[in-house]
Amino acid sequence: MEILRYAAFTRDGHGGNPAGIVLDAADLDDAAMLAAAAQIGYSETAFLTPIPDPDGALPLRYFSPKAEVAFCGHATIATAVARAERVGTGTLTFRTPAGAIDVTTNTGDDGVLRATLTSVPTTVRPLPGDDLTRLLTALRLTPADLDPAWPPRVANAGNDHPVLVLAERRALAELDYNYDLLDTLMAQHAWTTVQIVCEDTSHRWRARDPFPPGGVREDPATGAAAAAFGAYLRELGDLTEAERLTVWQGEDMGAASELLVQLAPDDRVSVTGAARPIPA
């Protein structure tokens, strides 16, 4: 198989989250895809079947080095950009285990090719107190670290992501969690990442996303979590369809990434980002 390597949600051509991409996985079974993802070693590798299903969508699956994942935002953006570079820009639908993901690619006035994914319908629900206590313990945070204006929630735009809003940038920068404890807790609840954010300025947030289920300590750019965060802000009445939110992620791990979030007219969320090939 031909394996491509792209970084998604790059900022000014730098940073981003690396993803493996196989643009023709029609002949690969589950074992072969999992083995390839483990060999590549990135948090996610996307496997595209270039033959449309009866609804005209292209099947797309995602594997971490440990298991299949229902949806991955950065690997979707990377796949869409890599495909557009070869066959041209436009609109298409990926059929993922989480559902149908509409994607549009275009080249902006700055000459940068970007992709926009629109998530499956989103949900937001409370994070029970006992789960919050255990989560804070695993993250080595306390209730005093949280911003009382923003209640903890579990948001879903294809995967479940607990959302925690910190009161200070310092607490986000100094995040140092118990990997094994958090891995166990997230496995029990089928959480994909933990979206930990703090407000920078109006409609600009900084984020970090621990990702033990993917076999990595932290994700430098998480499209699925950014979409879930958009749903969280809509639920709390802080984001409207006319507004765009910028999430800056990865700075504290040396891989600055930019994710642009906008609400869809329905209960979905769109996330836009650039992607670039990773030199061999």
From TrEMBL:
GO molecular function: isomerase activity
One CC-aspect GO term: cytoplasm
Pfam family, one: PhzC-PhzF
Keyword Isomerase: yes
Active site: E44
Keyword Acyltransferase: no
InterPro entries found in the cross-reference section: Phenazine_PhzF-like
Gene3D superfamilies in alphabetical order: Diaminopimelate Epimerase, Chain A, domain 1
Keywords: Isomerase
Domain of life, per lineage: Bacteria
Annotated family: Belongs to the PhzF family.
Protein name stated in the entry: PhzF family phenazine biosynthesis isomerase
